[in-house]
User: Fold this.
Amino acid sequence: MVKHSASLYLPPPQPSPPSPKSTSAALFKSDFAAKKGWVPFLLLIECVSLGGRVRMELLVVSLSVLLTLTTPDWVDASAYDKIVSHSRIRAKDKGPNVCALQQVMGTKKKYFSTCRNWYHGSICGKKATVLYECCPGYMKLDGMPGCPAVAPIDHIYGTLGLLKATTTQQYADMSKLKKEIEGSGSYTMFAPSNEAWDLLDRVVRNALVSNVNIELYNALHYHMVNRRLVTKDLKNGLKVTSMYNDLGLHINHYSNGVVTVNCARIIHANQVATNGVVHIIDRVISSVSSTIKDAIEVNDDLSSLNAVAVTSGLLEKLGEPGHFTLFAPTNDAFKKVDRDVLERLMDNKVVLQALMNFHILNSVQCSEAIMAGSSYETLEGHNIEIGCDGESLTINGVKMVLKKDIVTTNGVIHLIDQVLMPDSAKQVVELIGKSQSTFGDMISELGLAAAMRPELEYTLLAPFNGAFTDEVMTMDERLLKVILENHILKMKVTLDQLYDGQMLETIGGKFLRVVFLSLMEAAELTDLLRKEGSYTLFAPTDDAFEGLSDEDIALLKSDLGTLRTILLYHFSNRTFINGGLEGGVTNLLKSILGKNLQVLSVNNSILVNSINVPDNDLMASNGVIHTIKTLLYPGDLPVGREDLLMLLKRLIRYIQIKYVAGYTYQEIPLTFIMPEIKKVTRVIEGEPTIAKVTRVIEGEPSITKVTRVIEGEPSITKVRRVIEGEPNIIKMTSGTGYTKVTRVIHGEPHIIEGPDFSKIASISENPDLIKAESERITHIIQGGMKRKTRLVRRHKKPRQ
Assistant:
């Protein structure tokens, strides 16, 4: 180590006008050295050319410093160094050693910016313009492009003037610090810019200036470290000892290249001096000696937060060493929380801890380091997004920060005007989103929300608003309450805790099963279970597969076409609930496979293909589930493999399955989930007797418009559609997408042009039923049923 003394300092000579030859030589040296990474050797040449007036010790010091500063490839470059290198690349067309910066429009704030900010052309959501300046450590020469010259090396006092930190330089002179920073030593000075001094509270600044020998001198000493630290030495979370009472300075070095000291941003780094290095910062920093715990306890505006911290048992943690960020709600923020909610929180220590931890990060996030929105994990375990909008910090996109960057010995505090409420601190009903708001309204209106005890845990299976169709919204309240009870589990269960065959008890005393999953996954049909829509699933329980070996299951999964055929026969593309079926008659439900399911509703129970349905109307967000204890299979579909036939005979006993050697199942593409819908208009001419339309049900394909429905036996003189397929059905009644056959006349069908209509709305000949039905449903569905968001009841006597 070379020992330095004051005699080593030599003020830079006054430059004489360069000759054309010397100018070209200097330019050649600068360009060549910059390209080759030999800037330190260029400095050596220039120093030698001073005619021996510079001592060799100074050459060695300067060389060693610039080796570190100008050749980041030789050492591990910091995030700041990498960002500066990127800025140099962006300005490569502007000449040597030029950097491209972004300046926020309307402000003086400049950044060596990230690629994200650069390509968006903005910082903190505000438009930023591009500036081209000399990279740190370089300067311009008249008549030459770029910044070809290395900035002259001076002592720290002279370097302050070079960097235009003239206020700090003036205060150093006033406080008798000048002699110290002109002399020998190896210092780091974090020097406030002129603008930083202007931002300082006027009362504080006047107090410093009025007592220059003590207060101002101490303040400047707090900005200094008694060793040289360049940006690669300023590690994130580093604490260094200042030259004032050994109080600490807290360094943070962020991945976006921002470096802060006590949350003040370094805006010009690594300016080498003969006796150290100077970094210019954007604010005057104050000494720090208290913890986050201390700050909460002494701030009267945080008394509510202090009470929460004490009750939750987390206050002491905030007094321990660490690197925390606390978003501290003020007293006014707690006043915005409902009184009952606050009392509930204060009575539950576990929930209160979750609330408190949701306001704490296990890292220090100074406001000046936030240049765009980023997600951060809280101590509670869930993330919040911290961003910025101009000068304002945002949390989850909301401006709520009242005061930024209260620096402590173990982190930073930002005061906010709202209490952040994590899901873990909410009651389950409070988790219902806007897309399930109808479900929330219904469980409140029917008294189910009030029946849930606050000390117990529940899981809500919340259907989307679209699941509450007219049929659901107009059914008897008692039946609707029973259905909704099946959407509330008597336990807390997350998706990753579900498994095949699991039994889940509802508050209505029924059990839901998580079934069918492995076969659905093998058939690549799990998207159907998640897809928004309106489906009915007859779901086999584990009892349906009792006695099967792993080899049997593998056989079922081995043929994708076979598996899809079987599984899709269990689905219908509409929602059918027991309360919507007319009792005592067989209802034909078309499956997604295209084959009909025969459903019979008797004494509030359901049979499908003569198989009993033990649990029905288990509502999901995209339809309804009815559980069965056997597999279903279309009776007219043969099996072409003997091994599969034997297996299916063990599983399906309610029908005799046919065998046709070599028969293969038709390949089923998954496009059936989004069928093409065509508009069709049926026109009936003449002057028939018109009965009131009660409902037109959208089906396969959708009937989007009906101009007249004829009661009786009108004479049809002109038609435009062909109805092909089964014999003409003379009289039918319809529910939500199913057809009930009451009488079939054999013989030649009446033919009209058009595609097959499998679902037709008709009117009963009983006038009382006509009136009751017309009062129940009053609109025609076109292109899909209108979503109801509130319960509608109508009670009128039918016309006599």
Notes: The first helix runs from residue 20 to 36. Residues 152-281 form a domain with the FAS1 domain fold (CATH 2.30.180.10). The chain is about 30% helix and 20% strand. The longest strand covers residues 264-273.
